[in-house]
Design a protein that fits this description.
This protein is α+β, with helices and mostly antiparallel strands and 227 residues long. It folds into two domains: 3-178, Jelly Rolls; 183-224, Irregular (DNA Excision Repair, Uvrb, Chain A). The protein has six helices and 17 strands. Strands 1, 2, 4, 5, 6, 10, 14 and 17 form an eight-stranded antiparallel β-sheet that branches. It is globular, with a radius of gyration of 18 Å.
Length: 227
């Protein structure tokens, strides 16, 4: 499932994040790449231990945890600390699939990457090229969102960032281990949650169909969640 989550950050939050990130010291993105990714990747990246990366990353995670649409879709168990990349003229990232397992720098433990996320921090009109393209069973999806918006998609997807031909693209990217590892089950739970909300608005939270649907949702989540 791919999902556009609008307004994760407000315009004021985006401006504050960019002021902090733009003043930081960026490095070659391949300093953090494995040998296979290095062949396809051309961009700049902010070191994970940079104070700006840590502070802005915490603000992003706080915003995500307060966003009902993101929480409903991702059912996050662990959100890895956000990373940051910058694409300028000629930069791009060819076809690749994200690593299935990554180390959590906060705990030292390993997590499974069920979902990938990109949070855009540049406005679409500020650059040409730089589209995130994600392939799935339904074809290729081209993504170029307003600053502050996020795209969520399965980490098993082949994806790429097309070459920048004008301007600059700044974004945050990170991975989520979900409580529910199977994408189809997460999608079913997400659809049920949306249905509960819709029926609740129409009939009231104590109506029998709302109670029944809510119970069915939680029974499935109870059976499928890995905690």
């Amino acid at each position: 499932m791919m999902l556009h989550v609008p307004g994760v950050l407000t315009a004021d939050q985006v401006r504050a994040c960019r002021a902090s990130l733009d003043a930081a010291a960026w490095v070659d993105g391949n300093l953090t790449s494995g040998p296979q990714a290095a062949m396809a990747k051309r961009n700049l990246q902010l070191p994970q231990d940079d104070p700006a990366a840590i502070d802005v990353g915490r603000a992003i995670v706080e915003a995500l945890n307060a966003n009902p649409l993101f929480v409903s879709a991702a059912l996050p168990r662990t959100i890895l600390p956000p990373l940051f990349n910058r694409y300028g003229g000629g930069h791009g990232f060819g076809d690749h699939i994200d690593n299935a397992i990554r180390r959590n720098p906060a705990t030292g433990g390993m997590i499974r990457t069920d979902l990938s996320a990109t949070l855009f921090l540049s406005e679409p009109e500020d650059y040409d090229g730089g589209e995130l393209t994600v392939d799935d069973t339904y074809g290729s999806h081209i993504v170029k969102l307003p600053a502050g918006d996020l795209i969520l998609y399965p980490a098993s997807s082949i994806h790429r960032v097309t070459a920048i031909t004008r301007g600059e693209r700044v974004a945050s990217f990170f991975w989520i281990q979900s409580l529910v590892r199977d994408d189809a089950r997460r999608r079913l739970l997400f659809d049920m949650d949306l249905a509960v909300q819709e029926v609740s608005r129409a009939m009231g939270p104590e109506a029998a169909p709302v109670v029944s649907l809510t119970g069915a949702y939680h029974n499935l989540l109870r059976n499928w969640a890995e905690v």
